[in-house]
Amino acid sequence: MSQAAGQADSVEVRHDLAHVPLVPPSRTSGVLEVFRRRYLLRLMVRREIRARYAGTAFGLAWSYINPFTRFLTFYFVFGLLLGRGSGMQNFAIHLFAGMVLVNYFTESVTAGTRSLLSNRGVIGKMAMPREMFPVASMLVSLWHAIPQLVILVIACVATGWVGDGPLWVPDAVGMAAALLGFALIMVYGTAFGLMFSCVNVIFRDFQRIVQTFINIIPFTVPMMYPYYLIADGERIPLKYHDLYVANPVAEAVMLIQRGFWIPTCDGPCVVDPLTGAELPEFVGDLYSRGLVMLVIGLVLLAVGQFVFSRLEKTVPERL
Amino acid sequence: MTTTATTSIVVDNVSKTFRYQAHPTLKKVLQDKFRGNSTSQTFQALSGVSFEVQQGESIGLMGLNGSGKSTLLKLVSGVMRPDEGEVLTRGRISGLIATGAGFHNELSGRDNIYMNAAMLGMTKDETDAKFDDIAAFADVGRFLDTPVGNYSSGMFARLGFSVAVHVDCDIFIADEVLAVGDRPFKRKCLKRMKEIRESGITMFYVSHSAGSVKRMCDRAIVLEKGHVGFDGDVDEAIKFLHYDGDDDEPDGEESDEDERDDALASDI
User: Fold this and answer.
1) Chain A partners within 8 Å of B113 (Cβ)
2) What is the ipTM of this complex?
3) Domain boundary among B127, B149, B169
4) Domain of B164: which CATH number?
5) Which residue among A24, A44, A55 sits closest to B106, beta carbon to beta carbon?
6) CB contact under 8 A, B6 and A39
7) B28-40, pLDDT tens digit by residue?
């Protein structure tokens, strides 16, 4: 801009300031503003991703090494040691598919909750839409889900190739279901991230509370155990089953399992280990439930935005 | 200087209150309740501040430490919102509330330039077009591609300043910009800020140095404990603050510094 001084027109004329309105400098239009400033969002997401493995020799490869070893562990422990006799086929894939979304959700919510506090240096100094931070955390977590998804696909293909089951051929309905599962986590993760990030600035114990509950999440979804254990009413009264399947994460996990795990099975995926009778893999109305939950999630997102814009006004002075 | 009729900044009866301790523990809250301690937990950083700035004016904001200068800048830049009253601005704001805010230590100078420019509202094309100017002004040489965590504090400040002054803005805010940096860089900064001023950008400049305010600004606002103590001519503002220096100066360095700034500013 060094040429600016030499220019004949003043800034007022160049920018036609007479037609620019006087507005409060802090005015934003919420989450929509984030998408208006996509370029900044993209840079922020890239910054987080690059900073994560900065200085390491393997770099991005770590994003693949970790989920791969996790899958191998699952395969040996659950597939070979414990899986036998449970009546389930390809239990490791059942587990790993669920894990992709559970990790995505827990990462989004934990990182989202901390996002404002960990960016306090910028927030106190520069004016920008602060919704940017939880949304960026959610997108970084989504980006980290991709390597896990790649490992999952490789595992599915390898199971069909090497194992005695059919070749893994994804079906359109299954892929749509998996996509719906991702959409659910994305919407709920953003909604919770928005709400929690502000609350965490005002009440700093909150991230510890969130962490406590997040640790429970993997056990509240049908991934380490088959769905029928909850649904058959022998261990848990059936009324709690309704509560269980009202959990959007459990729903999303079943949707992604529908997409990846079901096509790996030869015949019924789950049978009663004693009688050999076919058992339900998922809750009955899987798809319609998923769509209803997506709508509820969008409402929750609007509530999250409302809470955020209420609380964020006082955020800079509380950091 | 272009004479203008466009209002650039309106600050209307603005107040801002802070808490002393933002995060009391539950124990502390209960103790206070039982003992009936009801000492005021808040203090007023600004109360009833009002003024208007025309486009192209350059305002020196002065006042002792703790008089509310930084709070006022944060309200004008949009980082904070006033509790009462209204702040309105016209056009894009750039500036330095602290140099290098938002720099990520693990990322290279190059990446940080793009990041910081985007935070200040620049698009990718704009940054691409100005990148060479920014890099040349920051003058960090080969360090441009090393993580900014390895920079010296001077280089860090230069990079931050360089991005801020290259934003095509309408209002420029500068808080203690000359606090870091050596003489050649100070000279460059002052020169650049003079250019900014002459291009018709509204400038909001905070400094304790009477000399540089005198050179840079055509109006001064003095804050006193959150109120506007004086608003008007720069020389009178300096007298109002007793910064004119003929009374007892504790050590010579301050006035020395002032003189050098003065000399610097008149150089350009």
Assistant:
1) none
2) 0.80
3) B169
4) 1.10.8
5) A55
6) no
7) 778 877 877 666 6
